Amino acid sequence: MAETYARPRFGASREPKNLVNPGDRLVRALDFVTGSHARAVAFLLLCGLLFFLPGFFHIPPVDRDEARFAQATKQMVESGDYVDIRFQQDVRYKKPVGIYWMQTAAVKTASALGLPHAELRIWVYRIPSLIGAIGATLLTYWAALAFLTRRGAVLAALLMCSSVLLGVEARLAKTDAMLLLTVVAAMGAMARAYMSWQRGEDIAHPPWRWPAIFWTALAAGILIKGPLILMFAGLTIISLAIIDRSAAWLRSLRPAWGLLWMLVLVLPWFIAIFLRAGDTFFTDSVGGDMLSKLGAQESHGAAPGLYLLLFWITFWPGAPLAAMAAPAVWRARREPGAQFLLAWLVPSWIVFEAVLTKLPHYVLPLYPAIAILAAGAMERRVLSRSWLMRGAAWWLAIPALASLIAVVGAIALTRQPAFIAWPFVAASLIFGLFAWWLYEDIRAEHSLLNALVGALFLAFAIYGVVLPSLTPLFPSAEIAHALRNVRCVGPKAASAGFSEPSLVFMTRTSTLLTDGSGAADFLSQGSCRFALVEARAERSFVQRAEAIGLRYNMASRIEGYNISQGRAVSIAIFRSEGTE
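^ thats the sequence. predicted structure below, dont judge the formating
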């Protein structure tokens, strides 16, 4: 058994003790998997599945962005139109077509493989995000190899894989996980070109694989989320050019051929959407979406510094390690590797902090740089020995707080204490305690591995058990279930007072979003029709029904919580008399 040191009591000498540390076995496992690239990649792939699959299939559609993306893709599949992007009758021109094509491919593939009702299963639309998250983990490993040993690169990839923010995005049918993949691919290729130039290697005949990866990743990033990826790459290049007073290394990325290749990839769809909608897409996406974020878009405004505060949660369990690595990173800021990673991180972070609109996922493409810097500091054993070491307590604090919130939330919403999650919670707390209590700077790897295992158990508890059980948070799923159980054929629905995108996705594209009066009129127009009326709209529904002589009855009532608006909802399902 490996010899470790106990924390001395006040006045006691520091004597070696034979403490049981589960990190010892984890370190031996890490020794094995870092013995070859094949084992490292297979290990990271397995970790990605373990971290991201809990809850992936069972968490219902989350309002509002995920449901909007999924519904727009569903309409693309239904219509066979792979150029235009719509939500019901309205155009949805906030983002380019890339993620919709990927989700469409997932739905088509699932249907071809015989999955019934693939277009109604939200997890099918999440597959591109799962691929993006796992791919970003593997590409973080690949990018880190430009700066670290194989062992350090695996640890950097594990920091990304286990981070709270990537875990959330891997389970949402949105753009951000796949955007992260493209950014890490582009920055990894750029890093190799830059480090090769710094080492004085010949750049007259560089390999074609670096520019091929770089420019293809830029094109994919543009098709997924517009020009945002160009900001990450551009600010990095500008910062390095100012620091080095040279940008000669860019020649190894073959900019002339690369730019031409990027345009070949991105222009066809942009030309097609221009021919279809004129300049509407560019007006809505650039002017209506991107530039509006300079202000407080959709009430998401916040002061500078918010991302730094959120970092302690969104990058957990890597956040304490990153804080302890910060002094060493600052001292090494003139070294080429740290210089590149800081150029990737700092300028874009400042931009995001300065912009008024703030959402946690905006800074996700910067986290791989932090992961590589933190893993590098740990690998070189230069972590801080100052008061920053107290941050190790965060490895226990987050599981404790998250578990408490999850259990209390489950009791409040479902009157059930989520007993199935308790063993996972206990394991997470135990490993978090080991990570904190046995932390020493010379054995930081042991503590980090304990924290990573604790994060894995926490993911099983929160995503795999608690969230799927919180059915009141997902009233659309309850409504869709009720409509699927009716006896009449081809039920049609109108909703008043509850107009979340998840309702449209889980019912029908033709679901009418209206007010109370409109729901009564809709119900009077035929059989097998249902009016979904939220309590605040019931008065106008009843008044209109009386005015037109509508005879109806209530099939059921759904009690839930609208997480988008932050309020409880009570939705009555009315049907015309004679409808079953």
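Residues 1-17 have pLDDT under 50 and may be disordered.
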